[in-house]
Amino acid sequence: MSKTALITGITGQDGAYLAEYLIKKGYIVHGIKRRSSLFNTDRIDHLYQAPTVENRNLILHYGDLTDSMNLTRIIGEVKPDEIYNLAAMSHVKVSFDTPEYTANADGLGTLRILEAVRLLELAKKTRIYQASTSELYGLVQEIPQKETTPFYPRSPYAVAKLYAYWITVNYREAYGMHASNGILFNHESPQRGETFVTRKVTRAVSRIALGMQKNIFLGNLSSKRDWGHAKDYVRAMYLILQQDQPDDYVIATGVTTTIRDFVSMAFSEIGATIEFRGSGVDEKGYLTGVERARFDTMVGGDYYEPFAARIGEVVVGVSKDYFRPTEVELLIGDSTKARTRLNWTPQYDLKGLCNDMMVSDIKLMKRETYLKDGGYRIMNYFE
Ligand code: NAP
Ligand code: F7E
Q: Which numbered atom of ligand 1 lies nearest the CA of 157?
């Protein structure tokens, strides 16, 4: 008998990778997607099966984490073996603009799922994975951060996720539910949302290389993140739910890097070197050189001359618009527990991740016509 999983947030980065992973393992996957005035299923279109297909292994339901009755009905109908609660308003900076909604979706949304499972008397059958986050550590109390490190959230997003973390622990202890938190550090991929910093950078560097954009403006270049690949991290989610006992696990690479160094790394993927000069909002990144062979391989010989002509120019700027009211300056995770108990190890290092994203974005930028919708996409750079 195939196992049945229900994924909230299936249209997001992690939801899409997890759905693909579970389907390959023989699962029947149900996903909750929000109604949108535009198509919002790009990331899972390759997995989609029309309702007319018999014995489907991917079934989508309309729903929302703010709608208890909807969630209870879906969980009651699907009676999943496993629920992966990945849905969230996941952008830290946007959470300062939409704090109440973020608390409702990210905090109470988790409670709605746990309570639905309990009321439907599925507590003994259904295992629950809660998408917890390294943002819980915020103003870090220990370096590196592990499962026992005290939390100190620094945004409405993180505070909402703090509630979600503890309500998951509470339902586990109060009702004996198999409910676990994955405390995942930042993970990225070619499917990463365009307004998170790594993807913003790989998209922009690709467009600069192709002559479609002059420069990129960023916020705090000095904050440090422990970045892994989403493909590795969804594997950890699955492993957490396969354990006999529910528990909480840090998932991280153990390597931390500044935003500034990630920008240099993205440029070096196309053979270019950058030098940063100045400080604070006056800091700028200058294009100082380009290695022809590497550029030709990654981008294409046709684009070399106009790009090389820009040596000496500013390609990276800083804008105060991208700074947050309170920042998380340093994240670096210690995932010893996951590595020993789950036998989890990441396959990608940061260079491999950056290469994967750059190859994908150069291809994507070459394909898309930005004359048509460029304005709209450039607007997104301000988030
Ligand atoms: P993402 O790409 O932003 O995806 C979020 C998903 O949640 C999307 O499918 C989105 O739908 C859906 N969603 C948002 N609000 C919803 C609501 N009210 N009701 C139902 N669905 C809703 O995020 P991700 O990077 O895949 O992250 C997955 C989860 O892990 C999130 O909970 C995030 O907070 C958490 N997390 C992420 C990271 C990371 O580095 N990626 C690290 C730690 C924890 P639309 O597609 O319609 O917007
Ligand atoms: O920012 C700095 C920014 O938005 C990373 C979410 O998946 O991971 C993610 O949250 C850093 C911050 O991710 C820009 O100030 C500089 O220090 O890519 P981000 P995040 O805030 O770490 C955690 C684990 C989650 O749980 C979240 O759901 O980069 N930064 N300049 C910038 N960030 C953005 N977005 N844009 C900039 O221009």
A: 34
